[in-house]
Amino acid sequence: MKILNAIILASLCSTTAFAAVSLEQKQEKLKYLELMSAKAQNLNIDSYRRAFNYEKLGLSPKLRAQNEARLMAEQISANLSTQFAQSLKETQDAQASVTELKAVIENDLSLAAPELKDELKEISETTLEQLAKGTQTFEVDTTELEQALLARVQETAKFFNEDSGLNTAAAPAQATDPKLDYESKEELLKVLTSEGPNSPYPGGVAHMSMNSGAITTNDTAISLYVKLEFMGSFIDAGPSVTFSREWSSYVTVLGEGLDPILDSNGYFDFFIKKNGKQVRRLMVFNCNAGMFFQTRTGVFIGGTVGGGTTVLAPVGGYGSARVSNDTAKKYSNSVNLNSRQIFVPGHIGTTPVTLEILNKICHRDFLNARTQKGITVKNSLDIMMKNVVASLRYRHPKTRCVYDTHCVGERKPNTQPRCILDEANGEYAYCENRGLRGQACAAYINGKLASEGPVYRCDSGLSCKIVKQGGWLQEGLLGRLWSPPKAECH
After folding, report:
1. Residue 350: left (phi > 0), alpha (psi -120 to 50), or beta?
2. Which of 336, 373, 341 is nearest to 358 (CA)?
3. pTM of this prediction exceeds 0.70
4. 277/274 Cα distance (integer angstroms)
5. pLDDT in tens, 360-399
6. CB 282 within 8 A of CB 256
7. What is the DSSP letter of 276?
8. Burial class (CB in 10 A: 0-12, 13-18, 19+), 158
């Protein structure tokens, strides 16, 4: 299939409506995501790289959607070409392969985002018809898909153009040594967010620990897109799922010795007796920040496929892939991070430090402090949340495989595990062992199963053949005995 590359001529570029965020800041956002993608491998980093290039070129939303539509059409074409070749090898009939793959397309798109489903189906079926004709070079009309993708490219542009806490002009906190007192709250925050070593930890001796009460803040709901399983791979055409978010923070304090850490007025008790003398006790703290998020509505939560990720299907669903509310749950998860562990200070400026002061610093100030990468702690948690969501996939809840390799754990002797599409409705795929050469298979006489024992359907390229006819054995002590026919895969 011939798909034109994106039009990036300067004469077709238009200035974007955003001006508050510089190109350098946008590049910092991309660099940060690239660092994250090393651990969050399901993050579609290529889509963000393309979006950054669109920003550099100043492409209009229309041209961005045009290129994204063409890239999606290319991916569909590649998937269909592979699937059609495999099907044709088995059926030896182009039209039979077309009919088979149309059913797969209908099934896979049942969970697609409603605004993309019709356009993706039309592109897929047009591509399939051209493949059946043997056409090597052809184009498909992506105009409707471009319109449907417009809102998505605008959302990506918003990511690069909204002020999310990145500030390339501000130098990130350098690793500095913890102090026993600080001139200001800002100085304390720089030490908390720097990446130097922790202060000595009183873990080797008797010590006391305590956590402050958690402070929580509910944030606005956010709608994020999930990927769709289509023809054995994933495309960015899944529906959006709305998540609610809750920020939380608390302080952990560790103090040497078993005496109370706080006095009766809520101030830290920095001294203990050692060998009859008052000495300053070893006391450290750190800020713990996290975000809990969950779907606003119920979804079916399945297992994993081939070591993959959480399987989600919407309650009600689209098309034939429907899930009842009886099995629905709310998908939830959380992301957390801890600050550097440092000495509990006696004073910040002239103010004596209390647990309440540390708790407020951790929730109000630490969440908005900048890390070594120049991004705020709160936005670091937000990006991690989006990376977790990016790993979610929508597929039919009964689906247990995508490729044959997902079924290897179910292999039986002299069989080949296969990933099989549900024959009744073509709605989902499951694992089934298929018999190899010489494996007992099911023999039918007049439409009735005649063979006995563990039998399997034969693997592709083999057929079930009767190798021994059934019959009545000579009369014995129990009378006449029936010997069933024996069939094997050949």
Report:
1. alpha
2. 341
3. no
4. 5
5. 898 888 888 887 767 788 878 887 787 777 667 666 666 6
6. yes
7. T
8. exposed
